[in-house]
Structure formats: C-alpha cells, structure tokens
Amino acid sequence: xxxxxxxxxxxxxxxxxxxxxxxxxxxxxxxxxxxxxxxxxxxxxxxxxxxxxxxxxxxxxxxxxxxxxxxxxxxxxxxxxxxxxxxxxxxxxxxxxxxxxxxxxxxxxxxxxxxxxxxxxxxxxxxxxxxxxxxxxxxxxxxxxxxxxxxxxxxxxxxxxxxxxxxxxxxxxxxxxxxxxxxxxxxxxxxxxxxxxxxxxxxxxxxxxxxxxxxxxxxxxxxxxxxxxxxxxxxxxxxxxxxxxxxxxxxxxxxxxxxxxxxxxxxxxxxxxxxxxxxxxxxxxxxxxxxxxxxxxxxxxxxxxxxxxxxxxxxxxxx
Length: 319
Known about the structure:
This protein is mainly alpha-helical. The chain is built from 13 helices and no strands. Helix 3 (74-91) packs antiparallel against helix 4 (109-120), helix 4 (109-120) runs antiparallel to helix 6 and helix 5 (122-130) packs antiparallel against helix 6 (134-165). It is globular, with a radius of gyration of 20 Å. 42% of the residues are buried. The mean pLDDT is 85.
C-alpha cells in the first residue's frame, strides 16, 4: 500500500507541474510580449493587469467549431495533437525538481528525455500529412528537415555534460555538478538551448509555421481545442527544455538552503529560462531556411563536437 501511495503522489506531482507551468508560461508570454511590443490588449481582460487573459483564450478555443477537412485522414488528423503533447508529460517523469523530488530516477534519464522529446515532433508531421493541404505538408516537411539538422547538436551537447558527470542519470548529473561547470560547459549549454528552441520551432526558428509563406504550416487546418492542444504542447515543450537545461547545465536544485528549497531553485531557474525564450521571440526576426541549416551544420555541430572533445580531455586528465 505504501508503494502504491508513493507512486500516486509522484504521478500527482508530475501532473501538477505539467498542468500549471505551461499555462503560466503562456500567460507570461502574453504579458511580456504586450510590454515589449507596446501591444496592450492582453492587459485588459478581466480587469487588474488582464489576469483573465488565459481564461479568455480557453473560452475562445472551446467555442470554436471543430472542423476536419473532408479529404483528411481523420484518425491521424485527430490523433496528432495528443502525439504532440503527451511526450512532454512523459519527459517530466525523469526530471528532478529537488533532492528526492522526482517521479522516477532513471539510469539513462538523459537519453530517455531526449528520445521522448523527439517523439513529440511527430505530432506536427502527422498533422501536416493528414490535413490534405499542400501548405500543411510543406510545414511538416520543414519540421522534419529542422529536426534532422538540430537533433545532432542537441544530443552532442547533452552528451558533453553527461560525460563530465560520469552518469546518464539526471539526478546523478545534478549531484555531480560544480559551479565552475558554468564556464567549462557554457558552449554546450548555448548549443543545447539554441538547438532545443529550433526543435520546438520557436522564433527565430519558426520556419515550419511561417505565416507569410505557408499560412500556419502543419496547423493550418486545425481549429478549436485541437489547435489549443498544439499551443499547449509548445508551452509544455518550453517547460521541459528549460527544466532540462537547468538540470544539465545550471545545477538543478543547487542554491542556498537547497536541502529544503531545492525545488524552488529549480522552478525559478526554469522560469527565468522560459522568459529568455519569450524574449528571443520578440527580439529576433525569423531566419531563412538556408540560414537555419547553415547555423546547425556549420555552427552548432562543430562547436558541440569541439566541446565534447574538450570534455573528454578534461575528464581523462582528472582521472
């Protein structure tokens, strides 16, 4: 009975984090973009500082008609939003919030989370193919090309910090983390974060949803709550990326009184990184496709390989 209760509490913790943080990131994006772009609409819904903007968005999506194109593959079309969203829920199972605050400490936690995040990209691919819309298909193909380009530096950067820690367990990496890693692993951290943004198709890497070229890419034919699920998957992906960056490169729960407040430090670091994601969206224009591919293959991949080699040299020298 004790084991069952422990599992239930861990599942409740993951669900609570998953249900709250993506919505909080979405609300923060509304407010941050409104201030940065002098676009004050989101400041009025509900009165004080537009507190009900998120509620208004939810009601709006719920009221919209659920449309499925006549020529679409109905089963795949309806399944795609869930495929985009659920992997991020599964990924949170292995991400520690604090000392002992983790649903499941996996020995191969790094590769587990990276593999699950890669599955989430299948959602837009399925939606674009099933929509029977040429613009949606083009968006899905761009998603596939972007995934292939940025998955390699993404994994190489994570492998660098795993090599430094001597373990693939996310809990083990946090426990092995030292403050000087902020400098030693900085190139890997930058590569990891930038590649993660590209995999999430966040600006300035939003070529698969370039509205001036292909309407809204793989999501063009989606309406109502199905479209809302894709948006929620985007915000959930931001939470997972920022939490994973925090655990791998920023020391996770390490901070003052981390034996008690470790979970708070993890959440604060995660939300600061989420704000950076929003800030980048407002600050930089969308890359061209050739620029996007050049950044991956001529920029991030060489840096990640050099960092991996440097890490290997340092690890061998220390042993």
